[in-house]
Design a protein that fits this description.
heterodimer; A: about 240 residues; alpha+beta; six-stranded antiparallel barrel; B: about 400 residues; archaeoglobus fulgidus dsm 4304 fold; nine-stranded mixed sheet
Amino acid sequence: MAATGYIGEVIEASTTQFTAESRELYSPPPFGSFVKIPWKIEQAPEALPQTSPASQDDKDPFMEPFLDRAGSFSADYRTAVHGEPEEVCNLQPAIYAIVHEASTSPADSSRRIRAYWKDEDQLDREHPEISEWMLVTHFKAVVIGYSAGGAVNQILPPQPPKILSHVYPCSTEEVRIITKKLDFLRTLTGIGSMPAEEVIAASIREACAARNNSFDYLVSAGRELANLLKDDYDRLQAIIRRVQL
Amino acid sequence: MFQLNFQPPILMLELANILLDIDALGRMQAETQNGMACQLSAAENAISDICKDPDAARARLNAAKTSWLTADFTELPSHTESLPAVPEKFTVVASDGSQIVPDKNQVALCYLLNASSIVLPYGTGARPEARSIPRLCYKDEDLFERYENKKVPVTDKFLAIRRTLAESEAMEYAISRADTGSPVVALWDGSLIHWSIENEPADYKERVLSQLFRLFDLAQERRIPIAGYISDPGSRDFTNTLKVMLCDAAHVNCDNCPHQDEETKPCNKVDRLKDSSVLKKRLQGGKRSVLFTSCSKILNNYRQHKILAFYMDIGSEIVRVEVPEWVAEDPEMLSLTHAVCYDQAQKGRGYPVALTEAHEHAVVRGPERAAFYQAIEHSCIKHGARIQRSRKRISKNY
């Protein structure tokens, strides 16, 4: 998959996950793969309401050092709350996510597709309208972190991605950088509305693959999981069995 | 005094009151259908008569003065053409339109025309194309029509014509997008005989037709057959021709009909038949009928684009396909039209795929209509225009 072209467009977004329409029918990014949405952080404060206090009395003197000139929380605030950035790198500002679901369905919910009883080649030849207009592939991804100001943070971004923003696959280099810390595993274990064990296992396989299947990384991921799931041995086993490379 | 405090439930439709009538209607339908065999046999006899002496039949038809439209036949009407194969590579183009009609109960007087263009290539390797262009009509020239040197409001009649013109323009675009390296067929939704403007003033009629003929001219220049596809056609022109044959008068003249009693009129022997039912049996297997001309008066204004029609079997029904004269006279284009109409109907399970897609890309659904009016309302509010809702609109909550 070329890293230069975008593979989807966001059609629904929240802080924790988003749904995107796949650019190509039947070609969503692989399950458990890492994707990114470029994010113009310099525009983010403009989107927020100006938080200048109404009167001198409302001013919180303790917050003063953390407010930047636009009225938003500054990098100092982030450091104070979340600690030092995990990774200082040259990544462009982006929101990172892991693909956890993909589906193909009628583009218009009122037009139900019926069986044609033809093979794939025949369908392509005789019914170009089906793949062109009648079907659409969607994929969902769970947000695991973002990069801003050259730093990667495995925490949820301040704002969700914008609707209709473009989704790109992450390069191997990006996967290596954003998975250096293993906090994303906690994010994945905490979201219940998906086959979490499968997603966790697939994302660890992806992260390992980006490191030439590094055994050390696999061990550290296993340790992190053992820590996270210390009260759920069965689930831990289920994930470890699925991680086998 | 004791009062009965009982109110019957309010029903919108008191179905119970017409149940007996509904039953009678069902019975009547069944009786009508039972009488069809007899009518069909009378029609077959009339067709045989025509075939025995087609010249005499045509002379009788041309001399007839009837109160209904008749269809002339180019060949013996008993003749049929077998289904030709579709080419390996070809393209079907289509267009359709829809509208949001002006609603005086809404915030502003305006309407919307939405026309779609579809290009569906088969076997050429090209990708299908679809486009729909909405047009908001709110200016003076949109809301009023120049008609008999007067400015008259655009009523439903004018709106329908404007929509047809938008569809025609969309079809021109579709034709311009189609790769003419392989055969192309343009499918038009419905009749190409725009008889509704027959009685309009000459200048208006000419204005409308000249815009429509832009499409016909373009298609003719590119050798792209245009075909008006009519599903479940109700036309009876050919049946009317058979009526002329069945009439026992020496010279057919409906104004001087010797038969006072409707029931005993010889022409009543086929009065329940549509052209499609008359021809159904002999068209089985994708065959098409011969070409019929129409004596619709509007065709006198159609220049070189006079419309002829044939009926064909698509498996699930008999359809009417209308083509301009230059298609009818070109065996290659005619046979291509026949093959493509059949193929499209098969691919679309009984209705051409290109027309279904054109409709899907043009149709304005309820929620879109609501969004349209909401956007207009927001625009008015944003610019400080006074919003006035009619009491009717408020009471109906729409």
